[in-house]
Design a protein that fits this description.
With 82 residues, this protein is α+β, with helices and mostly antiparallel strands. It contains 2 helices and 4 strands; from the N terminus they run ββαββα. The strands form 2 sheets. A two-stranded antiparallel sheet has the order 1-2. Strands 3-4 form a two-stranded antiparallel ribbon. Strand 3 and strand 4 form a beta hairpin. It is flat, with a radius of gyration of 21 Å. The model has no long low-confidence stretch (mean pLDDT 79).
């Protein structure tokens, strides 16, 4: 049996209380895309031993392909083929 949708309240307490479901947030993120960057440095006695960096791109395949096509067309306009 499906559970009730989860809602997140956006804004302050003085807002009119618009609620947005997690599905709507996920849909918005996938349509626009998000990049999450992070890094971890492990050190011992002030000496950096391990550095781990990460970049995570969260988007839909359709949005990624659209972005690639726009980038390629911009390059062609900037450097036209002869």
């Amino acid at each position: 049996m499906p559970s009730a949708p989860q809602y997140v309240t956006i804004g302050s307490d003085t807002d009119n209380g618009d609620e947005v479901s997690l599905l709507e947030i996920l849909d918005n993120v996938l349509n626009s895309g998000v990049v999450i960057q992070g890094s971890i440095v492990l050190s011992l006695a002030g000496v950096d031993l391990v550095y781990v960096g990460m970049n995570v791109v969260l988007t839909s395949v359709e949005t990624a392909l659209k972005s690639i096509r726009l980038e390629e067309s911009a390059k062609l306009k900037q450097f036209p083929r002869k």
